[in-house]
Amino acid sequence: MGVWRLARVLSRALSLKKSACGGALVTTSPSWVLSSGTTVLQGNTSRSYFSTGPPVTESTELVYRSHGDPSQVVQLDTRKLPELEAKSALVKMLAAPINPSDINMIQGTYAILPDLPAVGGNEGVGQVLEVGSQVQTVKVGDWVIPRDAGLGTWRTAAVFSEDDLVTVPSDISILSAATLGVNPCTAFRMLSDFECLMPGDTVIQNAANSGVGQAVIQIAAAKGVHTINVVRDRPDLQQLTDRLRAMGATYVITEEMLRKPEIKDIFKACPRPKLALNGVGGKSATELLRHLQTGGTMVTYGGMAKQPVTVPVSALIFKDVKVRGFWVTQWKRDNKQNEEALRFMLEELSTLIRAGKLSAPSCTEVEMKDFHKALDNAMKPYISSKQILVM
């Protein structure tokens, strides 16, 4: 197939790609159109690229120069892109979510902090426009996501090292690809690495409406695993319950219901949980522990309540529960040389997406210029829609 025909096919595929947002289908059309692909020789080096009209030489970015309230310290800025090096790639960002870890990083409270000034965003998807002469792991036209945290995805374009990128399939929605690397990977690993879950087993989790929680529900349902999903009480509780049940949640209960004797009725229909997933901490985590079966495991991956996890002595002595922690960034770093493990996970998740068994979280697409509104909404309680910056 000639390069002109290939470019037209790719352009049409991109313009027709649809993405799910808040239960509705919307057509996603990037702000640039592929027109041709070629290779140019420069001295003793060659670089492959797509012509996209005017060359991409600048990037519009959301930058913070000090830590603090995101609404105060994040600014929209434009800067010239650096020259492409032999082992780097020019990437046009397509979409990037605002996650709690992004907010914490800007606030200066996250476990890892980039040097300042920094571009916000740890997750997102982009398309490779140009590659250096020695790049081997990505090619022009590939969709790519960050391999690790701290890359800075809230920008329209960037020159990244090929080692910082991992390819993802381009036959899934842009929103699914943009939100693939953190929450679904966290859910996948926690459901895979701590207990041997079989069809008919039970998992209990708090923060069930979070991005991780929604992924847990869907991945567990695909495996035939029951989920007991704990959410905070709210005015739209029935609407939220219906939405989570539609995703595959077996039970949806409030924090208050978790503490009532009636919860025992659930265990007449399904076994006590082997695995508890805690994204809240405090009393909520203690209650999850109380309902674990003997020898079960509680995995903590977040602490939204900003309260410590308290483990009852009785749970340790009489139920021999295991208390573990999980951070997907650390997993990726520990498995940096294990490309097969990362590839397998991303392919498994992509297979679920293609089958309609794993969808992107409910989302609101926001243009870069409206970033203040997106940041404010990302920090509000009871906001069920994830804010996605579209470039």
UniProtKB/TrEMBL annotation:
GO terms for molecular function: enoyl-[acyl-carrier-protein] reductase (NADPH) activity. Residues 68-389 form the Enoyl reductase (ER) domain. It is found in: Mitochondrion. GO terms for cellular component: mitochondrion. The keyword Mitochondrion applies. One of its GO terms (biological process) is fatty acid biosynthetic process. InterPro entries: ADH-like_C, ADH-like_N, ER, GroES-like_sf, Mito_Enoyl-ACP_Reductase, NAD(P)-bd_dom_sf. It is an enzyme of class 1 (oxidoreductase). Keywords: Fatty acid biosynthesis, Fatty acid metabolism, Lipid biosynthesis, Lipid metabolism, Mitochondrion, NADP, Oxidoreductase, Transit peptide. Its EC number is 1.3.1.104. It holds the Pfam family ADH_zinc_N. Belongs to the zinc-containing alcohol dehydrogenase family. Quinone oxidoreductase subfamily. PANTHER family: ENOYL-[ACYL-CARRIER-PROTEIN] REDUCTASE, MITOCHONDRIAL. This is Enoyl-[acyl-carrier-protein] reductase, mitochondrial. It comes from Hemibagrus wyckioides.
